[in-house]
Design goal:
By secondary structure, the protein is of the alpha+beta class. It folds into two domains: 85 residues, no CATH class; 82 residues, no CATH class. 51% of the residues lie in helices and 32% in strands. A five-stranded antiparallel beta sheet has the order 3-2-1-4-5. A hairpin with a 2-residue loop joins strand 4 and strand 5. The longest helix has 33 residues.
Length: 176
């Protein structure tokens, strides 16, 4: 929903002020870079409610155990483009695992780190009261964590590029 509102706001902006702002190629590039930064922010903001719900749903998985991977496979699906060409896409690596808690062995499956798929072990999160309720730590993290450092780094670099372009095109070029 937030992304739709972003595109509506961007359309209104371009309709009323964009024509006056885009008087050459350079100012058009600045507007496009600014729109891309805004789109990335809209996507990140849009994911916040989903991640908050997942944190609430998975908060009971406080136990940690070292799980032994018994098998894994790449979860793929096919898409077809407008030319009829088929493409295989990946949702991630699904792992099957087992782990021990209190002398009992439990099993499960979930998305695991593709970098660690060929390793023997991955960390498993489980409910201490019901160890049969479990997921790999990678799966829990991917559903609940925001990548704040990555987002912050992206924003700093994006804004530096954006304001650098503005300074270069408007200050240097128009002032001589």
């Amino acid at each position: 929903m937030f992304i739709i509102l972003y595109f509506i706001a961007l359309g209104v902006f371009v309709k009323f002020w964009g024509v006056e702002m885009i008087h050459d190629v350079k100012s058009g590039i600045i507007l496009i870079v600014g729109a891309m930064i805004g789109l990335y922010l809209a996507v990140e903001i849009n994911s916040i409610p989903r991640k908050l719900r997942a944190r609430k749903q998975l908060a009971h998985l406080t136990g940690r155990a070292e799980g032994r991977i018994t098998s894994h496979y790449e979860d793929t699906y096919e898409t077809e483009d407008e030319d009829g060409d088929k493409h295989t896409n990946s949702r991630g690596t699904v792992i099957y695992y087992e782990f021990d808690v209190g002398g009992m062995t439990y099993t499960g499956q979930g998305y695991g780190s593709w970098k660690r798929a060929n390793r023997d072990h991955q960390t498993i999160c489980y409910d201490p009261d019901h160890p049969e309720d479990n997921l790999p730590l990678y799966d829990v993290d991917s559903k609940t964590k925001t990548h704040f450092i990555g987002l912050l780094l992206y924003l700093v670099v994006s804004f530096a590029i954006f304001f650098g372009l503005i300074w270069l095109f408007f200050c240097k070029i128009y002032t001589g």
